[in-house]
Every structure is written in C-alpha cells, then in structure tokens.
Amino acid sequence: MKRIKIDSVMQGDILFTARPGKTSKGIRFTTGGLVSHAMICVANGSFIDSTRNGVQARNLQRELFEDDEQAFHFRLKIPPERQILAQVIDYARAEIGARYSLTEAARSVSPFRSSSSKKQFCSRLVARVFNQAGIELVPNANYCTPEDLRQSPLLKELTVEFESVTIEELALMSGGLNPVDAMHDAQNAVLEAARSVDSKIESFNDLYALLVKRPETDQVIANALVSSGYLDLWKKEVARHPWRYTSGLMDKLSEPPKLLCDYCIGTIKEAYSGGVRFAINLIQC
C-alpha cells in the first residue's frame, strides 16, 4: 500500500484519483477522462471532498492506494494571494456536511441541465470553492466533471510523490477509534436532526441562520449535539494522545527526538490552519 506524502501537497492543491472499482471506471467511461474523483487540500495533511456520505474533511495519511493505483496532483499556475486562498479554504470548510447529489452529478455530462441546488458532488465542490473566490477553473462550476477540472487551463500538473505504508501502520489504522470517521458520524447525526425541522439544511453554516430564524429549534440541535457525541469527541482524542495537549508529557515519550521534532514542525507548518495553538509542542521538542 502507498499514500501521497503530505509534505508534497500545499493548501489549495487539487488531487484526482482513478480507483479500480466499477463506479470509478463508469465515471471515466462516461466522461471520457482519466480521473473519476477530485478533492481539495485545505491544510497540512487534510483534504475535503464530496462523496456519497456528503462533504467531509479527511486525513491524507489515511487515504491509501494500492501499489499500482494512480493519482494526479494539480496546482494553480499562478499562486493566489493569501487572502484569496483563505477564501477558497474557508468556503470548502463551510460546506462540510452538505449532501451529495447523484442526480446532479449525472447531469454534468448531459446537455439538459436544470438549475442547481446547494447539494454537492466532488467536481462541483472543487469548482465552486475556487469560483467563490473569483477563480474560474471551468466555464460552469455547478456542472462539471473531474476531467473538466483536470483539463483546466489555470492548473498545472505536478509529479505525485508517494510513500509506502508499513504493515505496522496499517495495523495501527485498523485498530481502535478512527477519529475522522467518528467526527463524520457525529456531524451527520446533528445535521439529520436539523433536517428533521428544515429539509433545506445542508451544512453546519446553515444551522446559525436556522437558529436565528427559528429559535424554537434550539433544543433539537442541542439534544443532537449531546446525543451524537459531538461535544465529547475531543475527550477521546486527549485520552489517546495526552502528550499533544499537556505540557511536559512529550519529554516522557520513548520516540527519537528527531521524530518528535518532525511531528511538531509538521503540526505548525500551516500557519493558516491554526499552528500557533501547537507552538508549545515545538518548544518542548
């Protein structure tokens, strides 16, 4: 197994995949393209995409590929200004939780298209987040395919840098709580509760407007936040990795100092993603 090296990817980069499964092959056949899925990188090791489970943030280190699988790495030819990139990332994060629309995804290859909804699919999400910041990757951000994005004249292709995943790492990933999946489940539970009172709710950002417009729904959302475990996810993370959050505990770890230092530097590498919060770890290192 292999994965894309997180140090090779920057915020705003677009990754494309061409999985060997039937769905991926069907998309590539229908669109006449090399790729079937698109995702945008939003932080050091984190990306956001739209799948059948909706829009979610995921960990690039857990995105595994078979040794013979292909992936494609693209970046804007002209680097955007920092505030523009921030808008792109903010919009992508704001869409977390939005539902997937298979029907509208299929219309991307049809000449007959109705007006678009707030729902997402992978290429629409990527195109929209850039379009929102004034960067038009494709002529129609609402209806485009992964291949349309791959062929955007505003993008340049980079060499994909892979690294092997050890058997020990695979065993570690398969055991215990997957914090990313736990967050997905909790977010979806809260959004489903919100949709029970307003079917137009798509993302967490929509909750604010709902509560202002209909304050009587506050208890529904509050109950969902508690019952889903959303408010307690941080406790599980702290319990599993207390050294990440408690000053002095890192000194007691048995790992080589360089490995710990590399971890700390990687954690604070992306200033936009809130690296200052973890600066104390670098001091301990």
Short description:
This protein has 285 residues and is an alpha+beta fold.
Give your account of this protein's structure.
The protein has 285 residues and is an alpha+beta fold. It has two domains: 2-158, endopeptidase fold (from Nostoc punctiforme) (Alpha-Beta Complex), CATH 3.90.1720.10; 177-284, no CATH class. It is 40% helix and 14% strand. It contains twelve helices and eight strands. It has helices at residues 22-31, 82-94, 102-106, 122-132, 146-150, 167-174, 179-195, 205-213, 218-227, 233-240, 257-268, 279-284, and strands at residues 2-4, 14-18, 37-43, 46-51, 54-59, 70-76, 155-158, 162-164. It has a six-stranded antiparallel sheet. A two-stranded antiparallel sheet has the order 1-8. A hairpin with a 2-residue loop joins strand 4 (46-51) and strand 5 (54-59). Helix 2 (82-94) packs across helix 4 and helix 7 (179-195) runs antiparallel to helix 9. Mean pLDDT is 87; it is low at 272-285. This is Permuted papain-like amidase enzyme, YaeF/YiiX, C92 family. InterPro entries: Papain-like_cys_pep_sf, Peptidase_C92. Pfam families: Peptidase_C92.
